[in-house]
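Help! Submission page says 'invalid entity' but I think these are all valid:
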Amino acid sequence: MRKNGVKMIKIKAKDVDVFYGKKQALFNISLDIEENQVTALIGPSGCGKSTFLRCLNRMNDVIDICSVKGEILINDFNINDKSCDVVRLREKIGMVFQKPNPFPKTLYENVSYGPTIHGMAQSKQEMDEIVETSLKKAALWEEVKDRLHEPGTGLSGGQQQRLCIARAISVRPEVILMDEPCSALDPIATAQIEELIDELKKEHTIIIVTHSMAQAARVSQNTGFFHLGQLIEHGSTDKIFKNPDNKKTQDYITGRFG
Amino acid sequence: MNKNKEQLLNKRYKAEQRFRLYGLSAIFMALLFLTIFIFKIFSTGYSAFLKTWLIVPVTFDAELMMLDQNPSKEDLQDADYYDIALKSMADLDPNANEDQENELKRMVSYFFEKEIKNELLNDPNLIGKTKEVYLTASDDLDQVFKGNYPRDLPEDQRRVSDYQLKIFDQLVANGKVESKFNISFFTNADSREAELAGIASSFMGSIFSILVCLMIAFPVAVLAAIYLEEFAPKNRFTDFIEVNINNLAAVPSIVFGLLGLGVLLAIFHLPRSTPLVGGITLSLMTLPTIIIAARASLKAVPPSIREAALAMGASRMQTTMHHTVPLSMPGTLSGTIIGLAQALGETAPLILIGMVAFVNTIPGSPMDPAASLPVQIYIWAESAERGFVEKVSACIMVLLGFLIIMNLFAQIIRHKFEKKWS
C-alpha cells in the first residue's frame, strides 16, 4: 500500500543470520516487507525460506540449537531484542502452517482459543461475535455454522486449513505468516485459500512461503527468491517473474532447477 | 525362466503360510497356558467361597449361663456361654466319654461360644428354650465335607479321628450339615484357624497401600515428566537424569523394601507394618514407571499442536497445560494403572517393611497395621493346615479380580478421554 506514493514498510529485516548448531542456514538476509501486501517467498527446498518466515514470529526459539542474529524490525521495534515478549509478539503476528493443525477440540474452541488467552472478549456474546466474524472472514462460516461444537478435526483438509486461518485472524494480527498453506490441499481448496488471501490483505500484511511459482505469481505483489540460505533477489512479483536481474532467479523461474 | 519365477512365487506363499501358522500356534500356546492357570486356580479356589456349618441344637439354660431372672442386656453380654456351648456339642452323642466330648468340641471352630452368644443377643426370649444354631465347622471337617480330605489314611496320620468322622457322617445323614456362601472370607481378618481366616485385613491393606502409592507417585511423576519433556533444557545433566530414571525402573523391588526399612522405619520412625509405609515404598517403585509412560505419551503429542498453540501466542505453560498434557493424559493414565497393578502384586518390599506380620484386625486407616493381598497369599501358602490351600487360590482369584477391575476402569476412563480429544 502506498501513502502519498511512498511504500509503507511493515517489516524490515537487517542482516539476519540463522544457525542450526554450527551450520549456518541463512546468510545476511535483508528484506523489507510492505504493509497490506502479499509477499511471497519462493525457492527450492531447503533454501531457508521457511526458516526466515519462522524468524518473524520467533518460532525458531522452540528449537534449542537454533540461534538468530541480526535485526528484525516490526513497526520499528526490534523483535530480537531482549525486551521483546514473544507472547505479545505472536499475538500480533499470526501463523498458518503447512499441514492443517487444528486443536483436537471443537470448532468454536479452536477459534476462541486465541481471544481467550489474550483476554479479548469480556462476555460470551463478544466471544460468539469474534468467532463468527473470524469464521466469516475465513470463508468458512456458511459451511460450519450449524456444527460449531463438533471437533475441528472432523473437517476436510481445506476446511481445516481455513479453520486454522480463522484461528489465526481471531486475535486480529497485523501480520499473517503462511508456511506453504496449500501444499497439502487439492486444487479446489487451494483456489479457495488463494481467494481468501487476496481478501485478507486488506486488513493484514501477509507473507507466504510457497513451492508453487504459479501460486506466488497469482497471489503476491512482492516476491523474494531464496537460494542456499541467501536472498538472491526481491522485488515486485511482476518484475521477478518477467524480468529478473539475477541469472539464478531466471533459471529457477523458468524451471531449470529446483 | 518363467518356471523359475513361479517356483519363487510358490515359495513366497508357502513362507507366508508357515509364518501365519507359527503366529497362530504362539497365540494358541499363550491361551493354553492361561487356561490351565485359570482352571487350576479356580478348581482349587472356588470351594473357599463356601463354608460348612454344623446345625446343633442348643438349650439356653439360664442356670448354666449363671443368669438371674429377667436378665438385662449387660447381663446377657457378661453371661457365661462356654458351658452351654460345651454341653450342646457333648449332647450330640449322649454316650460320649470325657475324651470323646473333647473331640466333639473340636468339631467346630473355637468361635462357637461367640456364635451361640450372638444367637441369644439377637433374641433374648430364647432363654430356657432350645434352638438349632449354625456353628462354623472346623477347617478339617470343612475339607471333609468338600471332599478334599483323605479319609482313607490310617487314623494316626489324620487330624480327624474316626469318632469325629462317625458323628459327622451321622449329622450329614440327618441333614444337619449345610454349605453356604462364605461371607466371613470377605469380612474376617486373618486368623490362625483356616475356617475363620478372611481377607478383609489384607484387602483393605492393599487398597490403602495403593491409594497412598497413587497419591504420592502420580503427581510427582507427572510433574517430573512434564518438566523433563516440556521445559528442561536438553543437556548432559538432563541426559544423566533420564538415564537414572530408566535405571530406577530396573531396580529389583526388594531394594526399595530395604530403602523403606532403612529410611522410613529406621530414620523417620513411621509406624511399622502399615499401608502408609507400604504405599510410600511402592510409590518409589512406581515412580519411574509412570514417569516413563508419561514422557512417552507427551512425546507422542504431535509437535504441530504445540506449534499451533505457541503461534497463537500461548506461553509455554499454557501450551503445556491447555494442549499437551490433556492430550497425553490417556497414555499417562494407562501407564499409571500398569504401575499400580505392578505395585498391587508386589510382595518382597512389603515383607521387608513388616507388612508380613500376622494381623487379625481390619485396618481403618493407612496408619493401622495391615497385610496386603499378595503377602496374604504368601502367608497362607506357608501355612501347614489343609484348609489354607483353597484359601490361597481364592485369594489369588480376588487379587486377579481386583486387577481386572482396575484395568477395566482404566480402559473406561481412557475411552472417554480419547473420545473427547479425537
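Support: the input was valid. A stray whitespace character was the problem, and the output above is from the cleaned input. The interface with chain B takes residues 57, 59, 62, 64, 87-91, 94-95, 97, 99, 101-105, 113-114, 117-118, 151, 153, 164, 167-168, 171 of chain A (CB under 8 Å).
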